UniProtKB/TrEMBL annotation:
Protein name as annotated: DNA ligase
Entry annotated with the keyword Ligase: yes
Species assigned in the record: Photobacterium iliopiscarium
InterPro entries: DUF1407/YfgJ-like_sf, YfgJ-like
Membrane-traversing stretches: none
Keywords: Ligase
Pfam families: Zn_ribbon_6
GO MF annotations, alphabetized: ligase activity
Length: 76
């Protein structure tokens, strides 16, 4: 299971206003998924309560257990 941790302080992120937020740093954080095969950014597909990832470069679905998840601070 992927841990949702702050990229700066590594504390657990909370979910506020439809985005991730670090209560310790007081900073919004984005979550981005990358293809495990080609490293291109993936498109998240959600339907019927489940999430899948699609790589437009490889033109195929990727297992969420294989994707590379990166958290970044939101810059204004």
């Amino acid at each position: 299971m992927i841990k949702n941790t702050c990229p700066q302080c590594e504390s657990e992120l909370s979910w506020k206003d439809q985005k991730y937020f670090c209560d310790y740093c007081q900073q919004a954080v984005t979550k981005t998924a990358f293809c495990p095969d080609c490293s291109e950014q993936l498109e998240k597909l959600q339907a019927c309560g489940s999430a899948s990832y699609f790589c437009n470069y490889c033109n195929e679905l990727k297992s969420k257990s294989r994707v590379k998840i990166v958290f970044n601070k939101v810059t204004d």
